[in-house]
Amino acid sequence: MIDLHTHSNFSDGTDSPADLINKAHAAGLTAIALTDHDTVAGWDEAIQWLRPGLALVLGSEISCQTSDGISVHMLGLMFDRENEELRSVMARTRENRIGRMHKMIARFNLAGYEITMQDVEAQLSDGATLGRPHLADALIAKGYLKSREEVFAEVLHNDSPFYVAHYSPTPEDAIRLIKGAGGAAVIAHAMSSLRGRVISTDTFENYVQAGLDGIEVLHRDHTAENRIILADIADEFGLVKTGSSDYHGNGKLNQLAEFHTDPTEFEKLEARTTQSRVIRR
Ligand code: AMP
Ligand code: ZN
Ligand code: FE
Ligand code: FE
């Protein structure tokens, strides 16, 4: 079983990379991709804990925004982490997430919530990418709400007055950066309407021109109809179809390996990278 989209506590997951690798072994996965938001900081710890039987696919989920302001997540898999252009875009995104957090906190303060940057930082592991889930955890710790799900449903969804966007590249730029760094670009949960506005199906052509390699078809947030539409688009453009859990530890309901990727699809994806950056012990 191959799961190509998971998070650790180097972003908004709750398991350390070590725990994630151990759980992947226990779940009988044959390959797992670590795809923390806008960072590669968890790679080394994951590599260190890897044992025979499990392949580690190095990756990151790159936050993107279209020119219309629609949020898109692009999975970059098997890219060269030394690539300067990609590194600097990821660093800029992470940096911008800090100022954006201050703005969101200010909006909560105006509405009467007593919450500070220190409260949010207390929810964040060292070196992790800061995100809304950490603000959610701080609101829960303060007793305002009960779970991340509740916080997102009530006050932190993309259309909420408390929501502030942060700098992110366009999806086309992210694809070009990932390809320039030798990796594979797979668009994540493209039709997840739970996340707010989604791109129209016409948009995929632009992404294909930029070098898109694959589409995450199987994902908890996709309806049966979404999956059929996305599989058809993938077939039309000769793209790889993936399935994955988007596991976040206990930060989300998603269970490790709840969806997975066909081994032949994964082989096609690997063949579209410049060099294998899958770690096998
Ligand atoms: P950000 O990148 O800071 O804008 O935060 C987005 C992240 O919030 C996503 O990657 C999800 O992991 C998380 N998220 C979004 N909706 C929910 C939800 N309903 N419950 C828990 N986590 C969520
Ligand atoms: Zn996340
Ligand atoms: Fe995502
Ligand atoms: Fe994700």
Structure description:
This protein has 281 residues and is of the alpha/beta class. The chain folds into two domains: 2-91 and 166-279, Alpha-Beta Barrel (TIM Barrel), CATH 3.20.20.140; 97-154, DNA polymerase, domain 1 (Orthogonal Bundle). 38% of the residues lie in helices and 16% in strands. Strands 1, 2, 3, 4, 5, 6, 7 and 8 form an eight-stranded mixed β-sheet that branches. The longest helix is centred in the middle third of the chain and has 27 residues, at 84-110. The mean pLDDT is 97. Bound molecules: adenosine monophosphate, zinc ion and fe (iii) ion (FE) (2 copies). Adenosine monophosphate binds at residues 12, 37, 63, 131-133, 148-149, 152, 248, 252.
What are the defining features of this structure?
2 domains; 281 residues; 38% helix; globular; binds fe (iii) ion; DNA polymerase, domain 1; eight-stranded mixed beta sheet; TIM Barrel; binds zinc ion; alpha/beta; 8 strands; binds adenosine monophosphate
